[in-house]
Amino acid sequence: MNLIPFFFRKLGFKWMFIIGMLTWVLRMSLFALSATEGIVVFMLIGIALHGFCWDFFFVTGYLYTDKVAGEKIKGQAQGLIIMFTQGIGMFIGSFFSNYTLPEQVIMY
């Protein structure tokens, strides 16, 4: 998190988002490989990538929202982005996982 200002100067918002999305894909792929192949190292690397994923995607999104929103609505814009990413988004995700998860889980 301390390196975010350095990366902003070098990369900018667009590349920070792209790197953030790619690290999420890499992280989830490593978790999937760990689950199917049973390689614990992939899981540990995926756990270690969490900070990069969070900083490069979510923190960048919060900073971008703060930059784009006007002075009068900065608080409302931040509240809206939190509601969508960690409120409604998690609710909808857990709702739909109820239908997809039983098909994906192998019962022993």
UniProtKB/TrEMBL annotation:
Coiled coil: none annotated. InterPro entries: MFS_trans_sf (IPR036259), Nuc_H_symport (IPR004740). One of its GO terms (molecular function) is uridine transmembrane transporter activity. Keywords: Cell membrane, Membrane, Transmembrane, Transmembrane helix, Transport. It is found in: Cell membrane. The keyword Transmembrane applies. GO terms for cellular component: plasma membrane. It is a multi-pass membrane protein. The chain crosses the membrane at residues 12-33, 39-65, 77-99. Its main location: membrane. PANTHER family: BLL5896 PROTEIN (PTHR23522), NUCLEOSIDE PERMEASE NUPG-RELATED (PTHR23522:SF4). This is MFS transporter. It comes from Metabacillus litoralis. The lineage of its organism: Bacteria, Bacillati, Bacillota, Bacilli, Bacillales.
